[in-house]
Design a protein that fits this description.
Structural class: mainly beta
Largest sheet: 7 strands, mixed
Oligomer: single chain
Low-confidence stretches: none
Shape: globular
Number of helices: 1
Number of strands: 11
Helix content: under 10%
Strand content: 35-45%
């Protein structure tokens, strides 16, 4: 059974850093693209970042470019989202998702430059990130 479990969320002050993890089970990362998405209260879900089956292909929403970095560890079957210079507007529930068509998933972007949610088939339960002083 394919499963994704996020961890690493929490409360951090503005300007701080967090690293989110997405542990995959039931499949291997080298056949799927992984995307990170977020949803703040009262707002629509937003694509944040993605990494392809080949880690050469990544994408970032304009709002996080230069602050967030996506990476993966094949041996641990885990994808990470390193988040630096966090802002209050980064507060949201963060989800990771897997796409069984990785080439399409990393090529098709939403209007902000991040991954498009409709390209992703499998979703985790989410982890809360709160940026506040």
């Amino acid at each position: 059974q394919l499963q994704l479990v996020e961890s690493g969320g929490g409360l951090v002050q503005p300007g701080g850093s967090l690293r989110l993890s997405c542990l995959a089970s039931g499949f291997t990362l080298d056949h799927y693209a992984i995307g990170w998405f977020r949803q703040a209260p009262g707002k629509e879900r937003e694509g944040v970042s993605c990494i392809g089956a080949s880690e050469m292909h990544t994408c970032y929403a304009n709002s996080v470019k230069g602050r967030f970095t996506i990476a993966r560890d094949i041996a641990k079957n885990t994808v990470y989202l390193e988040m630096n210079s966090l802002k209050p507007e980064d507060t949201a529930v963060y989800y990771c998702a897997a796409a069984s068509k990785p080439v399409m998933a990393t090529m098709i972007r939403d209007i902000t430059g991040g991954p498009l949610a409709t390209e992703y088939n499998y979703w985790g339960q989410g982890t809360q990130v709160t940026v506040s002083s």
